[in-house]
Design a protein that fits this description.
The protein has about 650 residues and is α/β, with parallel strands linked by helices. It contains 21 helices and 21 strands. The two termini are about 45 Å apart. About 45% of the residues are buried. The chain binds NADP nicotinamide-adenine-dinucleotide phosphate (NAP).
Amino acid sequence: MVLPLAPQLSPVTEDPATIAGYLPELNTAALIMSIVHMTGDTGILNELPSPRTLDVVAAGAETGEALLEGGYTASQVEFVRERALAAIADWQARGGQLPPLTAATMDALYRFMCGPDVDAEYLEFINEEVALDGVDRRGLQLQDPSLQARAANFPVVIIGAGMGGVLAGIRLGEAGIPYTIIEKNPGVGGTWYENRYPGCRVDVPGHSYSYSFAPNHGWSSHFPLADEIRAYFDTCAERFGVKPHIRFETEVVAAEFRDASDDWAVRVKGADGAEEVLEARAVISAVGQLNRPKMPAIAGLEQFQGPLVHSGAWPRGLDLAGKRVAVIGSGASAFQIIPELAQSASRLTAFQRSPVWMFPNPEYHSPVGEGQRWALEKLPYYSKWYRFWLFYTSVEGVYDKTLADPEWHSTRSVSAANDGMREVLSAWIESQVRAPELLAKVLPTYPPFGKRILQDNGTYLAALQRDNVEVVTTGIVAADARGLVTADGVHHEVDAIVCATGFHADRFLFPMQITGRGGISLNDQWSETNGRAYLGITVPNFPNLFCIYGPNTNLVVAGSIAHNAESQVHYILECIRLLLERDQQTLECRQAVHDAYNTRVDAVNAATAWGSPLVENWYKNEAGRVTANLPFRIIEYWKMTHRVEPGDFLIR
Ligand code: NAP
């Protein structure tokens, strides 16, 4: 599938009545911004309040009025639509010419959206993501011919062709740095290539789940299905010339830093089993955190005679219609699989060890309407501001509700704000479940954000209440040829077992053998499950090794992983630029800098809902340390990765 990746505006050909019919689908805040772009007049900004992010419900309670998206009243929204119709007509009458976008206008727009007191650095952060002026500020262009010549002699091996690896390829290509991407799958997409279980879709909005420089206005739904996302990354790899650099069906077995030559020897194995060594000046790992499926440790599971599958390795063409199916797990994957399988399975038994918190979102499965797509393609700057809105609301959303208050003593929440969230989410679950026995099973007793909160439109709990579905919370103790046995001695006979049991998330870069300076093994340095890196990117003793989505970079609530990948790749390119400018061979993070950073990471993580001793989750390693998550606000991480501090590194 080829996706339309069209940043240019298409001409408006629709009549006013059609356009008026489209406007109710649009985001009000983004529409206000578009009106200013069309008219060049910032006057409307004085006639309306700034939009509110996620506190709309609280704001409504204050005013006694039900508020719409952005915290606007129905009459304010109507006012905006009328102004929009007039602005579009006038703009069209002028032949589609737009007034110049001045710095003063940009400033007024951002201050309306982010508040009048927003500081200059925040505006730089947000404008880098939104790029209102169309300038992509994250790439590296080398103008100096001597630097270009050095860049051309700086071959890089990238491991993985998912979101991070393709992005690294695009950026290295722009900088004139030769690179090869080693990809174990036959296609691009990483996790979106591998996860093809029924119902698999992204649970952050698609319009922000894309590279900032390659918006996709063509998503068919607000939270697109896995194959559409895979196709997006495939299209990007094609469009930006990355494809010819990818060696598919090839795995990195080992990578060794050679002290004598200050470079890396990367051992790869092709589909035919033949091994080869590639030489590189730097290695970028873009293998992700959720890449190696983890099967449950259940005695006798291997004896099961029917299909035994993991959500992350769904066999193509597997059809479980009419079968008795067991699904083990209740995380993000099970949450999506169960409603799909339950529709056609003769019987589905959901083995749930822990219940999940879910966030009400009626749009979760909704298609993107014609009006919304029209605006993204045709209304000036609407797509930019819509992306801004999705990004900004997630960055500024619920972060504070995840932080633990040391004075708050409860086993169900970690602060008053977190408890408020617990009440709202509990009410959402209670509103959907009829039987008290089921409610007791599915209502979590641990704090919200202790595990990943899932987007929900009611489909999951409706599925659990179907006649052909049973929720079993008694632990599984064994398996045999015909099914699973629970601790109460009950044998559950099934035709197929689906393990939605997660990934080896605490084994970064697993199972590759990575060897650094002086023969140090990365696996040993990380004690197998205790991955640590500076900014999640560089590791002491491993010169010129860079990670994308490495240790402590996963986002739980705030921001977007696409944004963070861009921050990380920008930082990696800046590190390489430093080496080229100094004409040096290697850059290696200083141990003390790394240690101080990790002390901060651990302290903040320990004071969050997901770091709380009250919860178990895949964010923690066996010892209970949070190795997966970035605990900081996104603006903080952006500041850390925006510029490279040469003093942080041994540069030789
Ligand atoms: P997960 O969140 O680690 O969930 C694994 C589930 O299996 C948990 O419910 C766990 O129970 C259960 N489990 C593990 N071993 C078990 C055993 N022996 N017996 C019974 N239950 C067992 O894995 P996931 O659902 O694949 O999701 C992982 C992450 O991938 C997500 O948090 C998310 O970041 C990402 N993801 C995203 C999407 C999306 O964007 N829509 C979809 C899927 C996944 P406990 O909770 O008690 O350990």
